[in-house]
Amino acid sequence: MWSQDELLDTLLAEEEAAAPEAKPLTHREPSAPARPLPNKRGFLRLVTEPTPALKQRRKSEPPPPPASPVQVVPPPPPEPPRGPVQLSLFDPPEGS
After folding, report:
1. DSSP symbol at 77
2. Rounded to an integer, what distance in angstroms lies between the CA atom of residue 47 and that of residue 55?
3. Which residues make Cβ contacts (< 8 Å) with residue 94, sequence separation at least 6?
4. Are 82 and 72 a contacting pair, CB within 8 Å?
5. What is the mean pLDDT of residues 31-56?
6. pTM of the full predicted structure?
7. What is the radius of gyration, based on Cα positions, of the chain?
8. Are 35 and 42 in contact (CB under 8 A)?
């Protein structure tokens, strides 16, 4: 850990560096046949072969195994209709 005095002494002892030189921005040059965009804003590259990601996807994968037949479970029997129930906040619930 540096004290505040050590930090200030180190910062003030550092010599001032020269300002960085500005470099003009340039578009990269296409490596394949391309058509320039209007106002020199870049280019559209002609894709002659699939990208590596598409090449991997094109490998033939075995089809998934057929799904096993689904057994239909009969619905549960309907519950008998219930009438209105009075709830109490102070008494324990019935059946406990």
Report:
1. P
2. 13
3. none
4. no
5. 77
6. 0.24
7. 38
8. no
